[in-house]
Amino acid sequence: MPLVTTTEMFKKAYEGGYAIGAFNVNNMEIVQGITEACQEQKAPVILQVSKGARAYANHTYLVKMVEAAVQECPDIPIALHLDHGGDFEICKSCIDGGFTSVMFDGSHMDYEDNVKVAKQVVEYAHAHGVVVEAELGQLAGVEDDVVAADHQYTDPAQVEDFVTRTGVDSLAIAIGTSHGAYKFKPGQKPQLRFDILEDVSRRLPNFPIVLHGASSVPQEFVKKVNEFGGNLPDAIGIPEDMLREAAKSAVCKINIDSDIRLAITAAIREHFATKPGDFDPRQYLKPARQAVKDMVTHKLVNVLGCNGKA
């Protein structure tokens, strides 16, 4: 099947009490690891590209790799999504360039400006058959060009007005997740504001909600990175049981990026340390790709609950 939008994915996810994994892609091995896992598990998937990924790998290369994945994995729905588009121009570029979904991130703007630009993106996207995600509230942390020192929880009182005036198709909210691998301080109990999620869900019935910054930062990866020469002290993520609980409610899309980076880095560091004579990139990128595939398989089955939903 060709690339799809997220509309039907989210409808089924909302009704079925599961979430779709939105995995960030930057190179061929990541695309392959994710989509091979999804093909085997019969899981729909969103492959998402950030501004940083486009700068690193080039828009055309990324689109063509995703198109190759569509051809190689014909049994699963795949959407191609822009992650954190900070202005109308980058959203338009991706809409014109083959993406089926874009996120306009106006969380750095004041409310009225966020509404204004989100509406502009929606009007252009919908005219081209593309769906739009936007964000209310702001996540702390660092991921590519997204940098925020403070966390601002989503105000549920704003969501109806925002969705009505902009016409967005899904909404990312801030309930305690954050970008990067350092989401909580040592000794700090991870906590998500499910009360905000419930309030938003009540105000927007049957409307798909998105969680950004939802990597779990598996400690086996952190341990392996540090064991083989890395330096990731106190990297802590979102507990997977909390994400599963969110997926059973109105959350239809859960973003995962840092866990992919950790899986790859841990595998490559181990390979370099244990096989120092290897210098062919295929020798260390093959286990790195397998590490991504194994991690994604775990997420599909045990966290997102979207296996078998293709």
What does this protein structure show overall?
By secondary structure, the protein is α/β, with parallel strands linked by helices. 48% of the residues lie in helices and 15% in strands. It is built from twelve helices and ten strands. The strands form two sheets. It has an eight-stranded parallel beta barrel with strand order 1-2-3-4-5-8-9-10, surrounded by ten helices. The protein has a two-stranded antiparallel ribbon with strand order 6-7. Helix 5 runs parallel beside helix 6 (111-127), helix 7 crosses helix 8 and helix 9 (219-227) packs parallel to helix 11 (258-274).
Concise account of the structure shown:
This protein has 12 helices and 10 strands. With 310 residues, the protein is an alpha/beta fold.
CATH superfamily: Aldolase class I
- Give the overall pLDDT as a whole number: 93
CATH topology: TIM Barrel
Helix/strand/pairing category: alpha/beta
Q: DSSP strand (E) fraction?
A: 15-25%
What oligomeric arrangement do these chains adopt?
A: single chain
**Count of the separate structural domains:** 1
First-to-last CA distance: 12 Å
Specify the helix fraction band.
Answer: 40-55%
Q: Please state the overall shape, judged from the principal axes of the Cα atoms.
A: globular
Radius of gyration: 18 Å
Task: Determine the number of helices (DSSP H or I, runs of at least 4 residues).
Answer: 12
Q: Which CATH class? A: Alpha Beta
* Main beta-sheet annotation: 8 strands, parallel, barrel
Question: What is the element layout, followed by pairings?
Answer:
Blueprint: H1 7-16, E1 20-24, H2 28-41, E2 45-50, H3 51-57, H4 59-72, E3 78-85, H5 88-96, E4 101-104, H6 111-127, E5 131-136, E6 141-143, E7 146-148, H7 156-166, E8 170-173, H8 194-203, E9 209-211, H9 219-227, H10 240-247, E10 251-256, H11 258-274, H12 281-304
Parallel strand pairs: 1-2, 1-10, 2-3, 3-4, 4-5, 5-8, 8-9, 9-10
Antiparallel strand pairs: 6-7
